[in-house]
Amino acid sequence: MDLNTYIADVASSKSAPGGGSVIPLTGALGTALGCMVLEITKEKVKEADLDRIDHILSQGHAYIDQLKDLSQKDAEVSGKMFAQYALPRETEEEKARRTAAIQEALLGATEVPLQVMETSLKAMRLLEEIAEIGRKSVLADVEVGVQHLYTALQCAKYNVLENVKLIKDEEKAQAYQDRADQALQGSEEVKTAVLAAVDDRRK
User: Who contacts 133 (Cβ-Cβ below 8 Å, separation ≥6)?
Assistant: First the structure.
């Protein structure tokens, strides 16, 4: 799907793609900006550590691919969950089957945004390295990139928390909550570190 079609679909009355699909793409773009900074650094900085840059680039492109995949997966798990809500519930047996199906679908619909949070945090840590070695003239793109990733992580949180409230298995719900809290805490620390590193390089 091309970009114009995708945006038109998001802007339509369709249930998907929605926010859960848009969020990981925001993170993918943030990561891509970090990769761009490294590519420019390879070309323009004679003393650049090419082995280190290539290693970081490899990781960055892996995160971009993961986030793009998660965008597609979100549309899939969302569609599956909506389908379970449409199941018949006339008899007690149907109600029980529908409830079980919804609970199962909720787990997948929670796992995807959690993976978006965790992958975005990994990519943010990558940008912390990029802030240290990237060409000074393009460090603003590191700032934009880390803010994109931070936004993706924070927005994915909304879907996680919304779903956690609906999961009846308290142990699983708490495990999801704990993972989300861990990612949130890490994102604040890493974002601050990235922005501070860029500021230090500008002095």
Answer: 38, 41, 48, 49, 52, 53
Are residues 36 and 138 in contact, defined by beta-carbon separation less than 8 angstroms? Answer: yes
Average pLDDT over residues 87-113: 94
Q: With pLDDT > 70 as the criterion, what percentage of the chain qualifies?
A: 100
Q: Peptide bond before 17: cis, by omega within 30 degrees of 0? A: yes
126 and 56 Cβ atoms separated by less than 8 Å: yes
Tokens of 162: 């919304």
pTM of the model: 0.93
In sequence order, which residues have a C-beta less than 8 Å from that of residue 18 and are 6 or more positions away? 10, 78
Q: What confidence score (pLDDT) does residue 153 get? A: 98
Q: How far is CA 63 from the centre of its chain?
A: 9
Amino acid letter at 108? G
Residue 124: DSSP 8-state = H
Token duo for residue 98? 């529908």
| Crossing angle for the helix pair 50-85 and 92-133, to the nearest 10 degrees | 160
Q: What is the tens place of the pLDDT at every residue in 123-140?
A: 999 999 999 999 999 999
